[in-house]
Design a protein that fits this description.
3 helices, rod-shaped, 116 residues
Length: 116
């Protein structure tokens, strides 16, 4: 006589495995798009580099929702990189401007004290 009941695991054992139907794996929440830093870079620092950062940060959510998780992470990293380079470029230009002003003050002070 055959057993008409399915073969269930004993109580307390591991649960039966569910078949895999090819569903989407859960990758968690999307990465931070760094939009705030991109906007601050555009407004306060360097306009061209800030615009590139805004474009990259706006691509993050779209790529993530389409399932391109690696591309979304790369766009988020690129947005952060462009914002950082914009801030560094502005800091460098500001430092060069301060050096220029100090040199001009020194030249003006030394030329004004010269009497023939």
């Amino acid at each position: 006589m055959t057993d008409q009941y399915p073969n269930y695991p004993p109580p307390g054992g591991p649960p039966p495995q569910q078949p895999y139907y090819g569903g989407m794996p859960n990758y968690g929440p999307p990465p931070d798009n760094n939009l705030v830093w991109a906007i601050l870079c555009t407004v306060l620092c360097c306009l061209p580099l800030g615009i590139v950062a805004i474009v990259k940060s706006s691509q993050v959510q779209t790529l993530w929702s389409q399932g391109f998780y690696a591309e979304a992470q790369k766009a988020a990293d690129d947005a952060k990189k462009w914002s950082m380079w914009g801030a560094i470029a502005t800091g460098g230009l500001f430092l060069l401007y301060i050096i220029f002003v100090v040199v001009m003050i020194i030249i003006g002070a030394s030329a004004g004290s010269f009497t023939p």
